[in-house]
Design goal:
Helix content: over 70%
Shape: globular
Order of helices and strands: HHHHHHHHHHHHHHHHHHHHEEH
Number of domains: 1
CATH architecture: Up-down Bundle
CATH class: Mainly Alpha
Oligomer: single chain
CATH superfamily: Sodium/glucose cotransporter
Length: 491
């Protein structure tokens, strides 16, 4: 992959980047309320997004720039195992269909903005609220940083090196998110998703033709995997359980993150969420096509310094400069949308479950909005500093842990929507065991998310997030049964 500046590609990239920047500032006037000085308006878009806006917004922050870069990179490196993202993005939508409308209704009825609000409302426990909110914030920070990893790969392909281009992009993002709140990424998501669809469909249609067809693509990938003695086009027998548990655990965790919950809470109605659960699998089809680019990287015989360069290198090598610039712009914009929603979700958590809970309980809605705006800036700056001054592997390791951590908030957030038996001490004890037990297992396994288990036969590996969740639930049930219910749920 060349890293010299291509004026045509760079010009197209700048055009679309400027376009979405203008849209970001215009978004403050899109469906403008009487005042933006309210966290419901700034942080949730007035809770009034319909089916199509929600579809683009949730799709935009669920299928991120890092997804576009990392999924093909994983398939390029390990083959079939990298496709675990496909079943998990199918399994997640029945969960969304059944659970999220109930959660939305609870949040709408009581004015909840975050998962921490819901948990405090259900159990009246500041300690459990703090655990859920803190988990959400620390799981989100490396996720934002990884969007910068995706953007960095694109900037490198454009010949833009150093820290300044990345810093400029995130300063622009910070400014229009500060002014327009959730409306900015919601509006930009329309452009981003259409561009991503065009780029991926063009790649799937044109690249195989240039590489001699899909048969040659798969044969080249299989030959490379065999030559290096790692990876394959099919799962090995010892990978089935790991693959299935990783997919299931990732599905359960996906809508526990603050940014995906922000998209849910911003929806107009429970039916809007149900319609999206039906429509969003279209993104899974796109993801499956996108993953195939990993195999195409082998057939193209790319010279890469990192597997993360496979997608930029394919567009740069096999397409004219103007279309490469278009594809790079789509990926970069694909970093801005989720990064904005993630920073808003983290800011909402800080404002409602830290600032209002402990610093200023009497803060008015305008004060909440102001604190959230400032916090969103701090979050973005923090993520930028992680990428600029710490090894990228640090963000990758933290994101791996982030999925395991956020999964441990599921019992506290979801169980109380359907049963009234659980109470705060048991759920808090379960969270503690799941959070720290899962962290210990990942650390003990060399920062790998899988644990080997042997039950009277051949050993198999299981996703640690699910093991930690199982321990979480068992402890919650035992402690709940052994302790009296002393704090009544408020809602």
């Amino acid at each position: 992959m060349t890293t010299e500046i291509d004026p045509t590609a760079l010009s197209v990239f700048i055009f679309f980047f400027v376009l979405v920047t203008i849209m970001g500032f215009v978004a403050a006037k899109w469906r403008a309320p009487k005042t933006m000085a309210h966290i419901d308006e700034w942080g949730l878009g007035g809770r009034n997004f319909g089916t199509w806006v929600t579809w683009f917004l949730v799709g935009g922050d669920f299928y991120t720039a890092y997804t576009v870069i990392a999924v093909p990179a994983l398939v390029y490196t390990v083959g079939a195992y990298g496709f675990f993202a496909l079943p998990y993005t199918i399994v997640v939508y029945p969960f969304v269909f059944m659970v999220m409308p109930v959660l939305w209704q609870k949040a709408k009825d009581f004015g909840y903005v975050t998962a921490g609000d819901v948990v405090f409302g259900q159990y009246g426990s500041r300690a459990l609220e703090l655990a859920v909110a803190l988990t959400g914030v620390i799981a989100t920070m490396p996720y934002i940083a990884l969007q910068l990893v995706g953007m960095t790969a694109v900037l490198k392909a454009l010949g833009l090196h150093g820290e300044l281009p990345l810093a400029i992009a995130f300063i622009v993002l910070a400014v229009y998110t500060y002014s327009a709140g959730l409306r900015a990424p919601a509006l930009i998501a329309f452009v981003k998703d259409i561009m991503i669809y065009i780029a991926v469909l063009a790649a799937i249609a044109i690249i195989p033709v240039k590489l001699g067809g899909y048969e040659n693509v798969f044969n080249a990938a299989a030959a490379d995997f065999q030559a290096k003695g790692a990876g394959s086009l099919l799962l090995g027998g010892n990978q089935y359980v790991a693959y299935a548990t990783l997919a299931l655990g990732s599905a359960l965790a996906a809508f526990m993150y603050p940014h995906t919950l922000t998209g849910i809470f911003a929806s107009k109605s429970g039916n809007t969420i149900r319609k999206n659960a039906v429509l969003l699998p279209a993104y899974t089809l796109l993801l499956g096509l996108l993953a195939l680019l990993g195999y195409m990287g082998h057939a193209a015989h790319l010279t890469l310094s990192s597997a993360n360069d496979v997608v930029p290198a394919l567009f740069q090598t096999l397409f004219p400069s103007w279309f490469a610039g278009f594809a790079f712009a789509a990926i970069a914009i694909g970093a801005l949308v989720p990064a904005a929603v993630m920073s808003i979700g983290a800011a909402n958590l800080f404002t409602r479950n830290f600032w209002k809970a402990y610093v200023n309980p009497t803060v008015d809605p305008a004060g909440e909005a102001k604190v959230a705006k400032i916090t969103s800036l701090v979050v973005k700056v923090g993520a930028l500093l992680v990428i600029l001054f710490l090894p990228t592997q640090f963000a990758l390791d933290l994101q791996l842990l982030g999925g395991i951590w956020i999964l441990q908030t599921l019992p506290a957030l979801v169980f109380g929507l359907f049963v009234k038996w659980f109470h705060a001490p048991g759920l808090l004890a379960g969270w503690f065991v799941g959070f720290f037990g899962g962290t210990y297992l990942v650390w003990a396994n060399g920062l790998k998310p899988l644990q080997a288990i042997s039950v009277g036969g051949a050993p198999f590996t299981v996703y640690i997030g699910l093991l930690a969740l199982a321990a979480n639930i068992v402890v919650a049930v035992v402690v709940n049964a052994a302790t009296p219910k002393t704090v009544a749920a408020r809602a």
